[in-house]
């Protein structure tokens, strides 16, 4: 993008108006500071998922269930942090960690056995 003007066209009541905006290019260094650690995290997660799939899926499901319960309590039920029920979040995370993944793993194994 090297600092050139970018022409943006917008539809406006039956015609097209062209607006020219000079957009400064974003620093590639700031983007790299964010993207490089995310890429490393993804590569690490993918490697662990390949070597220990059931444990990785169980932990991921537990974390996702816990985050979902926090969202439910704070955004849906609007309890506020002073009434936040950490025991409920821990219970829901444990349900995801112990039961959901093992049940889904069993279902997928049965389906793979029946379909092959």
What features would you describe in this structure?
This protein has 116 residues and is α+β, with helices and mostly antiparallel strands. The chain has 2 domains: 1-40, no CATH class; 52-116, no CATH class. Helix content is 67%, strand content 14%. The protein contains 3 helices and 2 strands, in the order ββααα. The protein has a two-stranded antiparallel ribbon with strand order 1-2. Helix 1 (28-51) crosses helix 2 (53-76) and helix 2 packs across helix 3 (86-115). The longest helix has 30 residues, at 86-115. The radius of gyration is 24 Å and the shape is flat. The model is unreliable at 1-24 (pLDDT under 50).
pLDDT averaged over residues: 79
Biggest sheet, open or closed, and with what strands and sense?
Answer: 2 strands, antiparallel
Q: What is the terminal separation in angstroms?
A: 51 Å
How much of the polypeptide forms β-strand, as a percent range?
A: 5-15%
Task: Supply database-style keywords.
2 domains; two-stranded antiparallel ribbon; single chain; alpha+beta; 2 strands; 14% strand
Describe the secondary structure blueprint for this structure.
Layout: E1 5-12, E2 15-22, H1 28-51, H2 53-76, H3 86-115
Antiparallel strand pairs: 1-2
Helix pairs in contact: 1-2, 2-3
